[in-house]
Write a structure and sequence with these properties.
Order of helices and strands: HHHHHHHHHHHH
Number of strands: 0
Distance between the termini: 52 Å
Structural class: mainly alpha
Largest sheet: none
Number of helices: 12
Strand content: under 5%
Radius of gyration: 19 Å
Shape: elongated
């Protein structure tokens, strides 16, 4: 957790564009931040600082209830400006974030067995009339594997598949509920209250919100397609 009190990291997490620009102008920052913010055990892979602003761009590009909406809008604009600054000053290419490789972003680890993620054997679910394509989508959503999820949805997987009982959420509800929780509590609190230090869980919550936001949008887009076809 080498960098979690770093002024540049704090400014990026809290979307303080003017401070980010001032630090870059001064040249007094650790260039290694643009390769990894320094907690490989928790995140699983190197996390460059620009990933954080990319996540905020995903998370905050929506309408929220007041009074959070106004503050979120300002932070969203700052996040976009920070990304532009990074591209201009550091010649950084903005790539897709590999959420499936980041444990804190996922419901389940992609290295876990299908049986563990499903909570049972595929054969058992097939025997009670479930479609294999739907619980394959369940696995893709839980591991935030966007490539697999999109391919399965294109083939007709149910974006509102409910794997457990009637009282549990379907896939859209799973992701949407997490987005609401993060906006209301963990990651949302980073927008509302700007502190002088961070811990790894707080940064992880930004990635979790962003991953669920993207997956929610993907799933919901296929519900819309189904509705238009009816």
């Amino acid at each position: 957790m080498k960098y979690f009190n770093d002024p540049l990291l704090l400014a990026v997490v809290f979307n303080q564009f003017d401070t980010v620009k001032e630090i870059l102008d001064s040249g007094n920052y650790d260039n290694n931040l643009f390769s990894d913010i320094g907690e490989s055990y928790y995140f699983g892979i190197p996390i460059p600082i620009q990933y954080i602003s990319q996540c905020w761009d995903i998370c905050l590009g929506h309408e929220f209830c007041e009074p959070f909406n106004q503050q979120a809008h300002v932070c969203h604009e700052n996040a976009k400006k920070i990304l532009s600054l990074f591209k201009e000053r550091k010649n950084i290419l903005i790539d897709e974030i590999p959420f499936s490789k980041i444990p804190s972003a996922c419901w389940e680890d992609e290295s876990d067995s299908e049986e563990r993620i499903l909570g049972g054997k595929k054969s058992d679910y097939l025997s009670i009339g479930r479609r294999e394509i739907d619980f394959d989508l369940f696995i893709a959503v839980n591991t935030m594997n966007f490539q697999n999820a999109k391919a399965l949805l294109e083939k007709g997987a149910n974006p509102k598949y409910k794997h457990y009982g009637d009282g549990d959420s379907d896939l859209i509800g799973l992701c949407g509920g997490e987005c609401s929780y993060q906006a209301t509590c963990q990651a949302g609190d980073l927008v509302r209250f700007q502190e002088s230090s961070l811990d790894v869980d707080e940064i992880g919550s930004i990635f979790r919100w962003a991953a669920n936001e993207l997956m929610y949008d993907l799933l919901e887009s296929y519900v819309s397609k189904e509705t238009k076809q009816i």
